[in-house]
Amino acid sequence: MTLTKKIERERIILGIDPGTTILGYGLIRVIGKNPELMILGSIELKKYGDHYLKLKTIFERVTQLIDEYHPDEFSIEAPFFGKNVQSMLKLGRAQGVAMAAALQRSIPIFEYAPRKIKMSITGRGAASKEQVALTLQRILKIKTLPNNLDATDGLAAALCHYYQTSGAVVNEADTTSYKSWKDFINQNTKRLKKN
User: Fold this and answer.
1) Residue 33 CA: distances (Å) to CA of 11, 56, 120
2) Between 20 and 30 A from 145 (CA), which of 4, 87, 139, 158?
3) Can 150 be counted among the known catalytic residues?
C-alpha cells in the first residue's frame, strides 16, 4: 500500500499600503489554508524633499522586495477619495509606481478598498489602524507590532487578498485584477479617457 501525501501549493502575497510619506508593506506565505507572516515593514520617504525622488525610491524598494521574496500575487490598497486633490494625486502616483514594479515582474495585481481591507481583517469597515494591527497580531502571531502602523496596513492588504481568494465572496466593485499593462489599460479605458 502506497501512501501519497498531498502537496499543498505555496503562495506568497505582497501587500502594500501606498503613501508618499510612509509606504507600508507586508508579506505572507500561505501553505494550504495557513497564512503565516514572512516580513512587514515600511519605507520612510520623509527625508526626500523631491516628490519624483520619492516615486523613484518607491519603485526601487518595491522591486527589491519582489526580487527578494518572489511573491505570486500583489495586493494594494486602493486610493480613497478625499477633499485634498493634491494629496490624492500624490497618493495615486505612489500607488501607480508600486503597481508598475509588480507589472514589470508580471505579478498579478489585486486592488482593495480601505473599508474592504478593514472589514476583511476585523469584521468592521470603520476599524481603526490600531484595531487592524491588534487583530493581525492575534491572527498571525506577531510577537511585537511595529511602531509604524502603515506596515500593518500593508500586511492587512496581503491578508485581505488571501481571505478574498480562499473561497470567500468578493465584491467586484472593491477589487480589480491586472495581469499586464495592456490588461490595466483595457479595464480602465473609460477612466483614462476622462483624464
Assistant:
1) 10, 36, 16
2) 87
3) yes
pLDDT at residue 189 tops 80: no
pLDDT in tens, 51-97: 999 999 999 999 999 999 999 999 999 977 667 888 888 899 999 99
Q: Which of 73, 77, 111, 153 is catalytic?
A: 77
What distance in Å separates the CA atoms of residue 95 and residue 2, rounded to the nearest whole number? 50
Domain assignment of residue 86, given as a range: 10-185
The single residue of 17, 73, 111, 174 carrying the catalytic annotation is: 17
Give the CATH number of the domain where residue 178 resides: 3.30.420.10
Domain contains 195: no
Catalytic residue among 73, 111, 150, 153: 150
Q: What does the pLDDT average to over 115-122?
A: 95
- Residue 142, in any domain of the structure: yes
| Grid cell in block for residue 113 | 478598498
The structural domain count of the chain equals: 1
